[in-house]
Write a structure and sequence with these properties.
Layout (H helix, E strand, L loop, with lengths): L1 E4 L18 H6 L16 E9 L2 E8 L5 E6 L10 H10 L3 E5 L7 E5 L9 E3 L12 E5 L9 H23 L5 E7 L1 H12 L6 E5 L10 H17 L5 H9 L16 H4 L8 H13 L5 E2 L22 E2 L3 H5 L5 H8 L11 E6 L7 H14 L6 E6 L19 H17 L9 E4 L7
Parallel strand pairs: 4-5, 4-9, 9-10, 10-13, 13-14, 14-15
Antiparallel strand pairs: 1-2, 2-3, 3-5, 6-8, 7-8, 11-12
Helix pairs in contact: 3-4, 5-6, 5-8
Length: 452
């Protein structure tokens, strides 16, 4: 559906209404710090197209009336919707005259919290093990749109990103009357991993890329090789009131930045924000979802009454444990990627053999997609592939995984100003042939002005 609007900005352009697990407005706002002003201070008129590559594979294209002739295509973080990039990339691109496109990786919805007895497939439901809002005690589970009603494979996320770029170029050509002069790929987290893959496997589709807090995939190194270590040590660390040095040091040794503590009774440990302090308990949920995504033979069941033990206290409700296999917290703590997982990752693993200029941004305080296990490892892959001259990395001091965490304190700072500054640098590299110093290495940056 193509329509012209007087204002394409987030919060103004009409979007589809929400339904369970699908929240276009919330998906975008969850990735920025509350109160962040739009990078577009005035209305941007133009066209919005809501379309599909088939089935649940939805995407959005926006072309400003004052189009500059270039296109920005976004990889999408996590299992969020096609509108998740609206606030972090969309308004910025449109304000500067770029056409903009983003998709949903064919994932029909993000996630639904419901009681186990009501979930349609106990084999793919994650039983919540933590005592937040009595979710565990009341038998709540999370049903991921990446696993139900069917598995949407990680391989298809990458292949689909290439298809999105091709289709977005076609649609922008139809709307704008001419082909885009240049195309840029940008992405956050899982979306940044899509950008890396595209510049390695289908570089002819784009002119350059920007990746932010990007996941690194290889048969030997991935989120499934280091997150379980965090899950094993956190119960003792949380149970000690965040004082247990042995567990803290073991987590750091596994490739995590040191914890940040503060005198706030609601938010005492930054590590715990990713573990048991707030739904959807990202680090634990991620091990569950990606274990199931990458190994279809991995057994699990939430059971009609999960009754999983809280891994910190060991407490559970009276009666037998209803969950089995990978649905149990202790199974995720012990998790080791199987050969089936390694074979799955082999189809889309990162090689570092980029064929277009790429700029990377990561936060030094990222406790989820840690720079030690995702940023440094990718730089090493680029060096092994001898593509150092095409890659620039910036590590933001105090940057979390996404900017919404900065509102919690902990001495954190938002990364969006750095990301936007890096995109300006990418444009100068692609459009003007500029070659800034520092390719093949990384720079610690405290201010966006240091990206020059």
């Amino acid at each position: 559906m193509l329509a012209k609007y007087e204002d394409l900005r987030a919060g103004y352009v009409p979007l589809p209404g929400p339904f369970p697990g699908y929240d276009p407005v919330g998906d975008a706002s969850a990735l920025i710090r509350a109160g962040t002003p739009s990078p577009s201070p005035r209305p941007v008129a133009g066209w919005q197209l809501l379309d599909s590559l088939g089935g649940d594979d939805r995407f959005v294209v926006r072309v400003p009336a004052d189009w500059n002739g270039d296109l920005v295509v976004c990889g999408t973080p996590a299992t969020r919707s096609e509108f998740a990039n609206d606030s972090i990339f969309g308004d910025y691109a449109l304000e500067r005259g770029f056409a903009f496109a983003s998709g949903n990786k064919a994932i029909p919805f993000n996630g639904i919290a419901e009681q186990a007895w009501a979930t349609p497939d106990a084999r793919v439901a994650y039983p919540i093990p933590f005592d937040v809002d009595r979710l565990r005690q009341n038998g709540y589970v999370i049903r991921s749109g990446a696993l139900w009603p069917k598995t949407v494979s990680v391989q298809s996320w990458h292949d689909g990103f290439a298809s999105l770029v091709r289709t977005a170029k076609e649609r922008v050509t139809e709307i704008g009357g001419v082909k885009p002069k240049r195309t840029y790929a940008v992405g956050l987290s899982i979306g940044g991993g899509q950008v890396r893959w595209l510049l390695e496997r289908a570089p002819e589709l784009v002119d350059g890329g920007l990746e932010w807090a990007s996941v690194y995939w290889s048969r030997d190194e991935s989120i499934l090789t280091y997150l379980p270590a965090f899950l094993r040590e956190m119960p003792a660390y949380v149970g000690s009131g965040f004082r247990d040095k042995t567990s803290h040091d073991a987590i750091v040794a596994a490739g995590f930045p040191a914890d940040r503590l503060q005198d706030d009774p609601e938010h005492r440990s930054f590590w715990n924000e990713h573990y048991s302090n707030a739904a959807p308990f990202y680090n634990d949920l991620t091990v569950f979802i990606f274990g199931k995504l990458l190994d279809p033979t991995l057994e699990s069941s939430c059971g009609a009454h999960p009754n999983v033990p809280n891994p910190i206290t060991g407490e559970r409700e009276p009666g037998p444990v209803g969950a089995t296999g990978h649905a149990l917290p202790e199974a995720r703590q012990r998790y080791v990627p199987s050969e089936e997982v390694r074979r799955s990752i082999a189809g889309f693993e990162h090689t570092g053999a980029i064929e277009r200029p790429l700029i990377g941004i990561a936060g030094s305080a990222d406790v989820f997609i840690t720079p030690q296990r995702n940023f440094e490892t990718y730089r090493s892959a680029v060096r092994r592939a001898k593509r150092d001259n095409l890659y620039w990395q910036y590590l933001v001091d105090g940057g979390p995984h996404v900017d919404s965490y900065a509102a919690l304190g902990y001495g954190l700072q938002p990364q969006l100003p750095f990301v936007w500054r890096a995109f300006e640098q990418l444009v100068r590299i692609v459009r003007d042939g500029e070659r800034p110093p520092g390719s093949g290495a990384f720079r610690n940056v405290r201010s966006p002005a240091e990206i020059d």
